[in-house]
Amino acid sequence: MSEIEERGIPIEEPEEGPEPEEEEVKESKPLPPFVKLIILIVSALVLAAGAFFVTQKVVLPRVKKSPVGESLTEVKQKLQKPKKKKEKKKKKGPVIRHPIMGITANTAGSLGRRFVTLDLMVETTSEESQQEMVEKEYQIRDALIYYFGGRTVQEISTRQFMVTARDTVRSLINSVLESEPVDTVFFTTFLIQ
Fold first, then answer.
1. Per-residue pLDDT tens for 63-99?
2. pLDDT per position as a tens digit, 167-188
């Protein structure tokens, strides 16, 4: 026996009251998909806005102050200027025309069954260029045969090819010449067989 019981002191037992109720645990329901989507979109917009702000206020000012940034700024300014039309060079003298006749080349991929035949008229203002074209006509003809022989019939048949071919042929002729370059090239005959 305990000392309290020996002395006769009544021991009060705690009153039994209602038992504490278990707290109601609410089960959390998953978010609907459209709410998740909205949260995702808002988060992405906030991140994008933050990245834009950091780029505009922190990164770009540092780049513009660097030597690379200065050169980039100059290039950007040059690109933004309106392009001026190229002014044609004043011709030094009368136009001299030189014909290059009877260029025939087998087209690529045709096994010799398809070919292109063309005649050209080349314009220059330099008598030296005209004389050099006469002397080096074999080299010019070779370059033209090689150029047209490397193209397929489908490629040659397009209108775009005709536009670019004029510039290419002019460049080929100028690469052979050592004197002044030729000004213009015209196709007087262009036949695909």
1. 556 555 555 566 566 566 555 545 455 556 788 898 9
2. 999 998 888 888 888 888 999 9
Q: Is 124 helix (H, G, I), strand (E, B) or coil?
A: strand
- What pLDDT shows up at residue 43? 94
DSSP state of 108: T
- pTM summary value: 0.51
Question: What are the structure tokens assigned to 126, written together?
Answer: 């330099």
Rounded to whole angstroms, how far apart are CA atoms 37 and 30?
Answer: 13
Give the whole-angstrom CA distance, residue 139 versus residue 127: 19
H runs (alpha helix) in the chain: 3-7, 33-54, 60-65, 67-80, 127-135, 137-149, 153-156, 159-176
Side chain identity at residue 109, one-letter code: G
Is the pLDDT at 10 greater than 70? The verdict is no
Distance of CA 135 to the CA centre of its chain: 43
The answer to whether the beta carbons of residues 100 and 120 sit under 8 Å apart is yes
CATH superfamily for 96-192 is Band 7 domain (3.30.479.30)
Which residue ranges make up each domain of the chain? 33-76, 96-192
| Cβ–Cβ under 8 Å, residues 129 and 119 | no
Distances, alpha carbon 56 to alpha carbons 33, 52, 81, 187, in Å = 34, 6, 24, 54
Percent of the chain's residues with pLDDT above 70: 69
